[in-house]
Structure formats: structure tokens, C-alpha cells
Amino acid sequence: xxxxVATAAxxxxxxxxxxxxxxxxxxxxxxxxLVALANQTNVRILFESELVAGLSAPALQGRYTARxxxxxxxxxxxxxxxxxxxxxxxxxxxxxxxxxxxxVGLPPTSSDSPAAVTQSDPTLVDEIVVGSHIRGVKDxxxxxxVLSREDIDQAGYASIAEALTALxxxxxxxxxxxxxxxxxxxxxxxxxxxxxxxxxxxxxxATLVLVxxxxxxxAGVYGDFADISSIPFAAxxxxxxxxxxxxxxxxxxxxxxxxxxxxRTDLDGGESRVSAGAATQGGYSRYLAxxxxxxxxxxxxxxxxxxYTRNExxxxxxxxxxxxxxxxxLGGTDRRSTTSAPGNILRLNAAGAYVPTYAIPAxxxxxxxxxxxxxxxxxxxxxxxxxxxxxxxSERHSAIVSVGQDVGAxxxxxxxxxxxxxxxxxxxxxxxxxxxxxxxxYYVSPTGQSSERIAYSFQNEAGGVRNWGVxxxxxxxxxxKARLGAGWNADLSGVYAQEIGISHSTGQVNxxxxxxxAGLSADSALTSFSAARDGYFNPYVGTGYSNPKAVLDFILxxxxxxxxxxxxxxxxxxFDGPLLQLPGGKLRLAVGGQLRREEVRTGGARFLxxxxxxxxxxxxFSRDVKSLFAELNAPLVGPDNALPFVERLELSLxxxxxxxxxxxxxxxxxxxVIWSPSHDLTFKATYGTSFRAPALYELNAPYSITPILVxxxxxxxASLVYTGGNPDLKPETAxxxxxxxxxxxxxxxxxxxxxxxxxxxFTNRVGSPVVLAQALTSAEYAPFRTFVSPAxxxxxxxxxxxxxxxxxxxxxxxxxxxxxxxVIDLRNVNTGSLVVQGMDATIAYGTTVRxxxxxxxxxxxxxxxxxxxxxxxxxxxxxxxxxxxxxxxRLRVSATWTHGAAAVTVGLNHVGDxxxxxxxxxxxxxxxxxxxxxxxxxxxxxxxSVALTVQNLFxxxxxxxxxxxxxxxxxxxxxxxxxxxxxxxxxxx
Length: 989
Fold this sequence. Notes:
By secondary structure, the chain is mainly beta. It has 13 helices and 49 strands.
């Protein structure tokens, strides 16, 4: 996986070293000056960290080649400079060998290999820190992907969130901006439409996200994932992604992996950026403006960055495959709703399900209808997807300030970040199923009954429900890193993080007002509305007609407001340093602990019934977590004691104990091995256990019972549905292993091949495993449902009556006792298991074409197994390559060609074919990206960069999927935007 570190755009370096460029470096610590120099010259500089420790660099101004500049900085030291190949410089102590170089500048490519440099792998001077708490450990036994700023820029991604979710190892899942609208988030927990990272398809709640090594507060109703859309790209230096379970190092949530977003520390000056992009099919556009300011000095730095983004909404109707639930035109099924406009009269069929039996006639005003106007067996349908926004309109302001200062032997650091995001979107239209009587002047029954049940949609009269929301993300961290002597360090930090979400939906039905307007209840003195004066609600109106505005405004004055606040506070202390000298190197140890407090608070109000708004019960939950960990790194064989077929052998051990005051304690070990039989070949393997603690809301949310019509037998069955938390939940647990090999042949040092296998067995999974729409029809949900027949079975009748009388039940009188047909339990349980197994393959190759650098990179993920069991006794189901689940093949390849100040990047993305649960094949999806950029001195202006990016160059629509949700594509494995053209202008100051 080391090959993935090579995905930065490095093609310019082959010639950059020989070019004189303008250098502007202040006096300061040598290491910081070398970092800044590498960035300014686009050249890699390899050296041992200890080689420049304590050295100060003079200020440097003027035009120099990279080598000339390095020699100037080191002119009064005992360090020499050597060019090992174009674009790569190595610093060596005079008359002394060097064993473990560190690379600064762009991330290493395949040609910065052990064979090309020394017998140890180079890494970034800001070391790849994810996967270890030990400073100076420059390699991880676990697979790691590094995304530099250059990677993200040249791929044309608009944000760090877009870049991370585009990784072949990531899955869309439920924590994405479109998951609420497309049904991928069936429980509606991602109410603010944040973006999480879901590595290996194990869940966004099973991927730990850090900012500068510190946890973020949880987002969503459950607070169980980190919203990475709140991080401004203007402040990001690089992002490290650990593709392995890591609870032994980081504790809860690190099951699928760990993402560590590292902030910039070397910006000396300013960077201004503006960009704009639009979808060529229309309906979506995005804009960005950012400003970053930084300063470095002797022993310190400061960074301040601000970013503004605005994305316009994407209407489902803007895409032929997304805006019409009648998928027959695409070769699918008619998925339109029978809760429609005009409405349908429902009757119970022989199976006890409510089915449309008479369609309300179209093209009439609903006045004067008679029984003869109705035809038995006719059905009205409404395209319920026509009102949805797949992507909301969103506007975000985000800012980060980061500082660091050496004070003697102590480095003080502080980070502060804040983001404010607002969304505005349209959801599905309000609907109602009401029982109408002759009290309504428009009432008519096709068969002379005293009442009729009508399924009605307000879509034609009012459009979709409007959803407005705001989220605010806050994070602050203070730290002190002390050098204790003898190579030991102490790192003390305190963290506070908060995530606030507010979601407000308006234009919903107030059931009390509907009853009054329909004549089912008398006019109330508590409202200003009078049906006798302002008009009765007429559910018999046909196409082209509408109820009066006053009537609609009254009925649709309902609203719902939900609020959530998730907080995290922690104190962290880590000691690390060498224990003793082994033949292969220094035995290093890290020990530490953490005290963490997690809190969640939910509340809000609703006005969906009654005459006054009802406050939602404010609920506040918290817990305390204590943890201790230890990590050991033992280089058993190294350059000084290398053996035949054992050039390098390194062992790492880690273990962590984490104690929760609500769910108990967990103990998680991890072991890793790195073995290099030769300079060309490196093998890596890990094994460990990980866990995810249940979210506070999953544990503590009170259960409720509500009546819901659920699809069954061609109609809908009135069901009593349990939802809520479970205080007896235990942590989810996982066992993971990885095994990989990296090959860099000595004869072709610019080529690196990587292959990595992985497997995670995830058990005791927490959640409500049932998809409500399939609760009565899918065999796998049988343990969570009970069919009842209260009209014919006394025991069933007693059961239903007891449930309806439960203090947690509400609205159950909407249906009579005898018409209920099922009881469904959606409460959280520890019941599921998941086995994920697959392989990653990578390639990186650097070459030249007529003297111009050409850099090729590729990454492929093959998911062999994604096997799920809903209960320990249920049948294991293979879901790899199934619609709605991770595709079994994902691939991205890119090529970057550089000619002087110009560069062109071509990328290819591929998602393998998948299958619907009917066995129908969903074709593979291949898209191409193109970027052309120019940087340097443009139009007489220094430090300017312009880029034109086209994503999905050939405007390939997602492959057709007969989605039960009424969309003609699989939102879990494709996006609906189509081709988007973006222009970006960046100026360095």
C-alpha cells in the first residue's frame, strides 16, 4: 500500500531541480526551512530527522536552484547534499553513514524507494503519523493511503469530503448528502445531510475521523459519525487514511479504519482561491472562495484559513432517471405511489390489507360526484419523486486557526475550527389517509357506505415539504509537547468538540386541522378557521383542480423542529521514546491514556396535531470513558545486522483498555510485522481486534409505538411499530487482519506494485436491522415481526389492545383494533454480523515522454465477500456486488503529463457491475475526468495557478437500477450529477 503514497502529482520534479526559482525563506529551525523550501521548489529532500535537529537556517531571498538553496541553508553545518536522481536530494552527515532518511516536499513516489535511496523507506518530514503513537516510526505495518493537497487539486475535487468518499476503499452508505432524499438513510438519522467516511462498507460510524490526531464530535441524530464536510480544504495539508482496524491505538469506532486530516504548518504567505463549477445537464452548480494566511518563524508557525462554499440544489426532475417513479420507460417497474392526487378510496382485501379499490375521477372539481362516477378496480398514481431535491441547496462558512511555538524544550500548539452550514431542500409532498363521512358536504361513497378511507397526496396543490436546516461544528485543541531527554517526549492535550444540528420541516399536515377542515370535527374556537365560512376540504378534487388556498394553508400549517447537540471533551497524555538499542535499531515504546466525556442532547417541537405546538421531550445523555494503551516497536533486523533474505524485520505490538461507565470495558490488542527479504520486496501483515461502542442515543432513546401502513399482499397493512433505544446494548466487536506486499524492482526504481488482502469479522452489530418497507415481505425480517388477526383470534385481540394502551403508544386510534394486521419491532439490538473480505492492488510508475515527466497511478479494490447475518441463527447472505451495498470492484487510474508550467491529468473511474435482489444485472459504470492546469508566472503575475477540470467527461449517466425507492439508479454506488465543468484560480502571495 506504500504505492498509494505516490498518488501526488509529481511529474514536474524531474526538471524542477535544475530550474532557478524565486525563494523566500525567513530565518528559523532548519527542518521547517527545508519543508518550506521543498514546497517552493517542488523537489523532494531526504534526510534523517536527527541530522538537522537543533540547527538554525538563515533567511534566504533570491532566485536559486533547489540544490543551490539547500547548500546555502547548510553552508555552516556539517551536512552535505547529494543528488540521487533528478528531483530528489539527500542530505548526509559528512564522513558518516545515514540509515533512515525522511522526505520533505511532495509525498514519495515509487522511485523514492529503498533501493534508490538507502535501506529504509522515506516518508514525509511531517511523519505519516496515523497508525502509531511513536515518533520516529516512519512506516506502518497497516496499509495507509496519503492524499496530498496536490492529489485533491489535480483530481478536481471540490472538497476534502468529495476526495475521501471517492476513494475506491470508501462506500457511499447512509452518511452522504443525498442519502436522506434517495432512501439510502431509511431511518432519517442524517437529518443535516452531512458527509461521513465509510471505509470498507462497515459503516460511517465504524470509521474514526481525526483532525490533527484529535476526535471530532459526532453528527446526525445519533451523533455516530463525523461530518467531514465541515473541514475547509484551504486549511488542509494532507490526509492520511489507515485501512485497518485500529482500536488498539485509538479506541472506539476504528473498525473500518482511521482518517487523520492534518492541517497545514508550513504556509509562509498567503493563498487565495476562487472556483466555480456547473453540471452541463443543468440543475446543479457550486462555488468556492477561500483565503489562507500563514507565517513561519524560528520555532513557530500560525495558520488562519477561511472558506465559503455554496452548492445549488439538484432537483430529481432535472434527471430523467431520478425524477419519475414510473420506471417502465427505462425498462423497470411502475414505482409511483397510490397515496396520490387525485386520491384513491381504500378497502380491505381478503388478506386484511388496505388496497386502492376506487380511483377518484380525474379532470373534475370534486363537486356533485355520484356513486356511478366511480369504477371499481381503478387506481390513481402519483409520481412522488417529482418534488424531491436529490441534493439540497447548501451554504457553508468555515474557518480554522492553528498555531505552534517552541518555548525552550516545549512546543505549545493550539487549533480552533468553526463551521456554519445551512441547507434548504424540498422533500416528498405531505400525504394523509383520512376516514371521511357524510359530515363533509362533498362526501360520496361508491357503494353507499357511511364512511370511506381515502389515501390523498397534497403534491399537486402544495408541492414538496420544505426542509430547512443549520449545522454548526466547533473544535478546539490545546497541546504541549515536551522533550524530556534521552529521546523521550511527552504530549499533553485537551480537546473540546461540538456539533449542533437543527432541522425544520414546514408545510406538513396538522391532523387536528385536517379533521376540522374535512368536517370530521366541529369548528374550534381555538382557531381562526371555519369550514362553514372558509370552505371544507374536498378530497375528491381531480386533476387540474385544487382546494382553496385558505383551506390548504390551514391544513398544511403543521411543522416539525428537531435539534441535537453532540459534545466531546477529552484530556490525552502520551509518553514515547527509546527503551534500548536492538541489533536492528532502537526499541521504542509509547504509553498513554485518555479521559473522555461524551454528551448528547436532543429536543425540539412539533405542530402536527392539536391546537398548540408540542415541545419534544428534551433528552440529555452522557458517559465517561477512561482508557490506557501501550505500543511497542521493535526493529529486529536492520541495516547493521541484515541477513540473507532478511534485510529488514520489524515487529509492532499494541494494546488498549477502554472502560465505559454504561457499556463496560473492552480490551483490544494488535500485532504487526514488516519483513523485507531484499531491497525490492517488502511484506506486511497485521492482526487485531476493534470495537464500536453503541451511540448514546442508541442506548437511551425511549421506545415509542406508532401505527404505520406497511406494504403487504399488494396493499398496505396497518401495523403497530416499535422504535427506540436499548440500554442493554453491548459494544460491537471485530477481528481484522491484513497481509500485503510491495515490490519496487532495483532495475526499475520508478515502478512500485502493491497488493494487500484484508478481512474483518464484525459481530454484535447494533441497530434496527429491518427496512420498514420490506418488514412484512422479506423472509430475513421474520424474527422482527408478528402477524396478528384480532378480528378472529382472541389472543391477538388482547395483544393489540394491550399495545394500544401502552403509555408509549400514540395515534393508535387511527385504526380500529380489528384492522391491525402486524406488530413490527424496530428497536435497537445487538444481533447482526458482517464479514468483509477483499484485496487492494496499486501501481505507481514514473517515466518521461520526450523529456517531459509522465506519472501513472492506479488503485483497485476487489470486494470478495460482504456477508451479512441479521441474527445469529439467520441465513448468511452474500451482498458483495448487490445494489445498495458496496460494489465488488472499484478502480481509479490516472496519468499526469507535465510540460514546463503546464500539466494535464486524465483519470478513469470504474464501478463493476452489480445485481438487484431480483438477479437483474446492473451494468458497470465507467467515467473519465480531465484537468488542464497552468501555474507559475502567468500574464506577468507570479504565483498564479489556473485549472480547468471536467469530471465525468463523457457525461455518463448511472447504469439503470429498478430501485424500489422509485429512482432509476443505485445511489449507494453512483451519483446523479453527470458531467460537471469547473474553473479554478489560485494565487500565492
